[in-house]
Amino acid sequence: MDKMKITELYDLSHTLAAPYLMQFTYPWEALAGLGDFITELGKSLPREEYEEIGEHIWAAKSAVIAPTASIAGPAIIGKETEVRHCAFIRGNALVGNNAVVGNSTELKNVILFDNVQVPHYNYVGDSILGYKAHMGAGSITSNVKSDKKLVVVKAGDVRLETGRKKVGGMLGDFVEVGCGTIVNPGSVVGRNTSIYPLSMVRGFVPADSIYKNQGEIVKRVD
Predict the structure, then answer these.
(1) DSSP for 200-219, written as a single string
(2) Do 116 and 101 meet the contact criterion of CB atoms below 8 Å apart?
(3) Cβ(12)–Cβ(172) under 8 Å?
(4) Known catalytic residue at 85
(5) Phi, psi angles (nearest 5°) of residue 8
(6) Which residues are in the Mannose-1-phosphate guanyltransferase C-terminal domain (predicted)?
(7) Where exactly are the structural domains of the chain?
(8) Per-residue pLDDT for 109 more than 80?
(9) Of 110, 141, 208, 213, which one has the fewest beta carbons inside 10 Å?
(10) Residue 181 and residue 137: Cα distance in Å, rounded?
């Protein structure tokens, strides 16, 4: 389905992962080799702008990282990004410029585009968050089905097999996720869409929408 393609969800000028993502059609296809890509990219980053602060962990010199944050490699932390108190970055994480990884937020196997904010008690695993995407306090991406079967991405009658047990949320550019929301495994949210607080998101949510609940998605009128 064209609306779930990388080219429809993301402006690739806002991430260092652009050349990597361009190899794929759908965003979840990029999850498998992400760690290797980050490792090779980190080695090529300009030393006048980035420093290796741990094994396979590169941080921009302008980034602000709390001493209580825990970061495992491979990981890249972008320019002017803030990693706050007790953030837990578990590896395979490419965090863009001017981003916020907040208090007690956990990241694993993710791409966060520039200006992404996951600022308060968020879990983001096996997911890709587009430019200026924001997750409200306590909202999470669930990345494993309760029956532990492989994740299937669904949009109406369309079913796309991912071949992966772990797939979180694919959030397009400018997506706003309300507080306390759960983005279920394999959910894809189009650009410029807002999700109401305390929502349970499944499947594909079109671009330029307001998601009120599973049965009520309305077109945004700005």
Answers:
(1) EE-SEE-TTEEEEETTEEEE
(2) no
(3) no
(4) no
(5) -90, -25
(6) 71-185
(7) 2-219
(8) yes
(9) 213
(10) 9
Is this model's pTM higher than 0.85 or not?
yes
Closest CA to 97 of 131, 72, 134: 131
pLDDT in tens, 78-102: 999 999 999 999 999 999 999 999 9
Distance CA 47, CA 69 (A): 23
DSSP 83-148: E-TT-EE-SSEEE-TT-EEEET-EEEEEEE-TT-EEEES-EEEEEEE-TT-EE-TT-EE--B-TT-
Bridge partners (DSSP) of residue 64 are: 82
**What is the Cα–Cα distance from 135 to 124, expressed in whole angstroms?**
9
**b or e along 149-180 (b: 16 or more beta carbons within 10 Å of the residue's beta carbon)?**
eebebbeeeeebebebebbbbbbbbbbbbbee
Q: Examine residue 74 and say whether the peptide bond preceding it is cis (omega within 30 degrees of 0).
A: yes
φ/ψ of residue 126, rounded to 5: 50, 50
Q: Given a cut of 70, is residue 179 above it in pLDDT?
A: yes
Which residue among 14, 85, 120, 134 is the active-site one?
120
The single-letter code of the amino acid at 195 is I
